Each structure stands twice: as structure tokens, then as C-alpha cells.
């Protein structure tokens, strides 16, 4: 595989990351003000662009999968998949969704129920139905389509064309290798590193807050910045160790454990929860999701209130775009030997279905208590999403067991996301090397944790969300350009075969 000097990306991105971390910890007030200004500008002025871009990614991925390009193999024609399908699925699911599913599985439907989009009355049957549909939209095919674009391009360019595993390499088909190897390529790769750091730090911060809330709820451990720091240090040691151990050992092992824990928690929830409501929620929300797919994808009001859209959908789309370089690179790394069609269907449909089942189960557990808890209590829970899950579990049999499994699951999701990101960041800053140095993994492992902590102390959940939205903005244009590059590369591939 070709190498190019990429130390500039490493040093520049480390310096930027350190500045962000130091500023967030020691200048939290000014950092928070700037972050809020950026968030306000991006969501108000460019929300339409996020909506349009994410729909384009979905259409693009499905068109490529069903096209004549679908049979092209991501590697030599005689290559076979490196990992078994279940292990492959476990790794990409853990890296691509991670802590977010646990954090929002119960809290998000409750939030939409008590404070739905303009035009829907809160705490009504219509609000409950909207809550499930909105959750399906946010966690369905859209994020995975975005991941698949970068993943597909990188798997093709690395394993079939033997180019470095860098985001900038995806531009070779449209601007040529000479320009990619210049300053342009370094800027693109630096953007990829910063977007990845912001997106992953958001999840790590959310995970830390929820782990602390669970420990506080169950064992009265105080919920404060000191406990956050202790949790982050312990988890950082584990995820850095598993990243350094490599994909075959540490990352694969934790991903498999993740699947077991996630399946166990869902099984117990189904046993003790409202089974009929769960089944009805899945079928009904899936029907609404499919029926209103394009309407929801482009839902923005040019004449009225877009507060809900800006606070939820635009945040999610920005969050997924911020995650795309990291998740796309990681799933490319583990997808050698699969065909284009197999890759897109595996990356988009299977994990999206798992996410929808997750929300049908846990969302129903929360909404099932709407009469028992009342609107006031549910509004309070929506305001503290990190603890809502534990409060809901407490109302069901085996609630303590579910809470304990969830805390462990949060830790394993935390580890899976962070060790995957550590591995990818090290690849980005080492010429796209598929086996980056342990020293770089150590540096990035620590920096991710420090930045997550910095964002938490500078404004909690809002600061975490703001970081991902601001960092993702330039990546919209990068990903749209990557779509054009993929088409050109695949067309050239078929011409060569002919």
C-alpha cells in the first residue's frame, strides 16, 4: 500500500485537540458561549442543507447497491470476508450506534411525547405515535447510509486500488493523486480527525453522565465532575488497552460481549414489559416511518416554528455526519472481501432494523407508564435523559437486574466506540496504515477522554451536542463530493473489466 508523509495531519490535529481541551476546562464560560453561537448559526441557517444532504446519502447508497456496481468486490476478485458476518455486524453496530441507543432508547420517545413538534398536542395519543415515528427516523436508515458512503469509498480505494486508508484518498478519482498528496489532502484529513473527535466525545460524555447517573440511582454514588473524571479514567484505560491489542483481539472481543449484553437486556425487557404495545409500536411506527419517509426527511417549516427540528433532527444529522469519517473508516477496515451490494445492505439495513427494534422495546416501556407517572413527572424525566432509563426500569419487575446490565452495557458500548475511534484516529494520522502504532493510539485514546471531559465541564449535554454540530458542518460538502468520486471510480472499474 502506498505511503505518504502525513505527520502534518497528526501534529496539527493533536494541537487543535489540545487547545479545545484546555480551553474547555479552564475557559469553560467563553468556550460555552462560542459553542452556543456556532450551534445557533448552523441549525438556523443551514438546517435545510443537513436535511437535503442526508436524504441524498440514503438515495445514493440504495441506487449504488441495486446498480450494476453491486457485484464489484471490495478487494481482489478472489478475496473473502475477513470476519464472520455476526462478528462483523457486532463491530459495526457497536461502533456506529454505541452509547446513544442506551442513552436515548427510553428518554427520546418520552421527550417527544411531552414536547412534540409544533402542531402536535403534548401528552396525547398523537404525540405518542409521533414520538415513536420520530425515534425511528433518527435511528433508522439515514445514519447508516451516511456511514456506508465513506465506508464503501474507503474499502474500495484501500483494498481494490491499494491506496492509503485516508478520507483524502477518496478524492483521487476526481482530482488526481498529485493534488490529494498536497496540502488539500492534509486539510481534508485534518477535518476528518476533528469531526471524529467531536462526534465521539459527544458519545463518551453522554455515556459517562449516564453511567454516573445509574451508579448514583442504584448505589447513591454522587453525580459530579469528580465522579465523571474517575469513570472516564477507568474506561479510558480499558478502551485504550483494547485498541492497542488490535481488531482481532480486543475490539472484536468487546464487540461480541456488547451483542450478548444488548440482546440480554432486550430479552429481559420483553419478558417484563408491555409485549403487545412493543409489537404494536414496532409495526405501527414502521408503517408511519415508511409511509412518511420523504416528508419526514425534508420536514422543515419555512413560515413557522422549527425549534423541534433544530433541536432534534438537525442535531442528529450533524451528529451522524460527525461520526461518518470514524465509523465509515472503521467499517471499511473490517469489510475487505465483501461485494458492494453486500456491504451496503449489511451496513444500512441490518443495524437500522436492530435500532428500530431497540426503540420499539424500550420506548414502549417508557410510554407505557404515561398514565401512571403523569405529564409532570415525564417532563422531568425528559429534562434528565441520563437518569430516565433507570427511573423507568424501577417500575418493572427485575428492574434492578436491567439497570445493572445497562450499566455494564454502557461501559462496553463506551469501550467499543472509543477503541474503534482510537484505532481510526491513529490510522488517519499515520498515512492510513491499517495497523497504526501503539504510541499514536495511546495519544488519541487519552485526548478523546480529555476532550469529552472538557465538554462536559463546560456545559454538559448541550456542549456535547454543540460540538458535534459545529464540527460536522464542513463534512457535509466533503461527503457530497465523495459521492461523485465513488461513481466515477466504479464507472472506471467497469470500463477496465470490459
From TrEMBL:
Superkingdom classification of source: Bacteria
PANTHER family: HIGH-AFFINITY CHOLINE TRANSPORT PROTEIN, HIGH-AFFINITY CHOLINE TRANSPORT PROTEIN-RELATED
Topology with respect to the bilayer: Multi-pass membrane protein
Statement: the UniProt record of this protein carries the keyword Transmembrane helix: yes
Subcellular compartments: Cell membrane
TM helices/strands, residue ranges: 7-27, 47-66, 86-107, 141-159, 187-205, 225-244, 256-273, 314-331, 343-361, 400-429, 441-461, 467-487
Species assigned in the record: Peptostreptococcus canis
Assigned keywords, A-Z: Cell membrane, Membrane, Transmembrane, Transmembrane helix, Transport
InterPro entries, per database record: BCCT_transptr
Protein name listed in UniProt: BCCT family transporter
Similarity annotation: Belongs to the BCCT transporter (TC 2.A.15) family.
Amino acid at each position: 500500500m502506498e505511503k505518504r508523509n502525513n505527520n502534518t495531519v497528526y501534529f496539527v490535529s493533536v494541537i487543535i485537540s489540545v487547545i479545545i481541551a484546555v480551553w474547555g476546562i479552564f475557559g469553560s464560560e467563553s468556550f460555552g458561549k462560542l459553542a452556543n453561537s456556532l450551534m445557533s448559526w448552523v441549525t438556523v441557517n443551514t438546517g435545510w442543507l443537513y436535511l437535503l444532504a442526508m436524504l441524498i446519502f440514503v438515495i445514493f447508497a440504495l441506487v449504488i447497491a441495486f446498480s450494476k456496481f453491486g457485484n464489484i468486490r471490495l478487494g481482489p476478485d478472489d478475496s473473502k470476508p475477513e470476519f464472520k458476518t455476526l462478528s462483523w455486524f457486532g463491530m459495526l453496530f457497536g461502533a456506529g450506534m454505541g452509547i446513544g441507543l442506551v442513552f436515548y432508547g427510553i428518554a427520546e420517545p418520552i421527550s417527544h411525547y411531552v414536547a412534540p413538534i409544533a402542531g402536535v398536542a403534548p401528552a396525547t395519543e398523537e404525540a405518542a405515535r409521533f414520538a415513536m415515528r420520530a425515534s425511528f427516523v433518527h435511528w433508522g436508515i439515514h445514519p447508516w447510509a451516511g456511514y456506508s458512503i465513506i465506508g464503501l469509498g474507503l474499502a474500495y480505494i484501500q483494498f481494490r486500488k491499494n491506496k492509503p486508508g485516508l478520507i483524502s484518498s477518496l478524492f483521487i478519482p476526481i482530482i488526481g493523486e498529485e493534488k490529494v498528496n498536497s496540502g488539500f489532502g492534509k486539510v481534508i484529513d485534518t477535518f476528518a480527525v476533528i469531526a471524529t473527535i467531536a462526534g465521539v466525545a459527544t458519545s463518551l460524555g453522554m455515556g459517562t453522565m449516564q453511567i454516573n447517573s445509574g451508579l448514583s440511582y442504584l448505589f447513591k454514588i454522587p453525580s459530579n465532575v469528580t465522579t465523571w473524571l474517575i469513570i472516564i479514567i477507568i474506561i479510558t484505560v480499558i478502551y485504550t488497552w483494547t485498541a492497542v491489542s488490535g481488531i482481532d483481539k480486543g475490539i472484536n472481543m468487546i464487540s461480541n460481549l456488547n451483542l450478548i449484553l444488548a440482546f440480554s437486556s432486550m430479552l429481559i425487557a420483553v419478558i417484563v414489559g408491555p409485549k403487545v404495545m412493543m409489537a404494536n409500536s414496532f409495526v405501527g411506527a414502521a408503517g408511519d416511518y415508511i409511509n412518511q419517509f420523504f416528508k419526514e426527511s425534508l420536514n422543515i417549516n419555512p413560515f413557522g416554528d422549527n425549534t423541534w427540528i433544530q433541536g432534534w433532527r438537525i442535531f442528529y444529522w450533524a451528529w451522524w455526519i460527525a461520526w461518518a469519517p470514524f465509523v465509515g473508516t472503521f467499517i471499511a477496515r473490517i469489510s475487505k472481501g465483501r461485494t458492494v451490494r453486500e456491504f451496503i445492505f449489511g451496513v444500512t439495513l441490518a443495524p437500522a432494523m436492530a435500532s428500530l427494534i431497540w426503540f420499539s422495546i424500550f420506548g414502549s416501556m417508557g410510554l407505557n407508564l404515561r398514565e401512571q407517572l403523569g405529564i409532570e413527572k415525564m417532563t422531568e424525566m425528559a429534562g434528565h435523559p441520563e437518569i430516565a432509563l433507570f427511573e423507568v426500569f424501577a417500575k418493572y419487575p427485575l428492574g434492578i437486574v436491567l439497570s445493572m446490565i445497562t450499566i455494564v452495557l454502557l461501559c462496553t458500548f463506551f469501550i467499543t466506540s472509543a477503541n474503534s475511534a482510537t484505532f481510526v484516529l491513529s490510522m488517519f494520522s499515520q498515512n492510513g496504515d491499517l495497523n497504526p502504532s501503539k504510541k499514536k493510539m495511546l495519544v488519541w485514546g487519552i485526548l478523546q477522554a480529555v476532550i469529552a471531559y472538557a465538554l462536559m465541564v463546560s456545559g454538559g449535554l448541550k456542549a456535547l451536542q454543540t460540538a458535534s454540530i459545529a464540527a460536522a458542518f464542513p463534512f457535509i460538502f466533503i461527503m457530497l463530493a465523495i459521492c461523485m468520486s465513488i461513481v466515477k471510480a466504479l464507472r472506471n472499474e467497469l470500463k477496465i473489466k470490459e
